[in-house]
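Lecture 7 notes: from sequence to structure.
We start with the chain below.
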Amino acid sequence: MPVIVVGADTPLGRAALDALLPREGEVRAFVSSPDEAARLRDRGVKVALGDVSDGSHVGGAALNAYCAVLIGEAATDARERSFAADPTGVLDAWAEGLNDAQVSRVIVVWDDPPATGMARFAAETVVVGVAGRRADSIGADVVGLEEVAELP
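Predicted structure tokens for the same chain:
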């Protein structure tokens, strides 16, 4: 089933992609970096390039995807975001876009995502914490959660 990683141009986003690519199914990436977009396309990943705070763009890239993996760092790092002023606004935009795209499952890779934003997802949703963990372990968790029949 198709999966999209939003924030695939972060270290944890790369780890999630690396873990997802060997499995069956389409893997997509949403990134802000043109250089990272080119590198991912060379690896066979379908890439959308844009502002991670633009919910309509994220939703368009996620259309017909079963699962979205949201990397919290993309909502909190130093990249330019024109459509949201803070992490809560980014998460709200992601929820709106993914709800519009009718994504069924959302995996949020973030230690403490804003609760108000988390409540807006229509899909089944789970949070994967990152504190003190290795990126490859987080990537393995993402694959396991993407593949299970029902989230815990």
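Points to note: The CA atoms of residues 18 and 139 lie 7 Å apart. The helical segments are 11-20, 34-42, 55-62, 73-76, 87-100, 115-118, 135-147.
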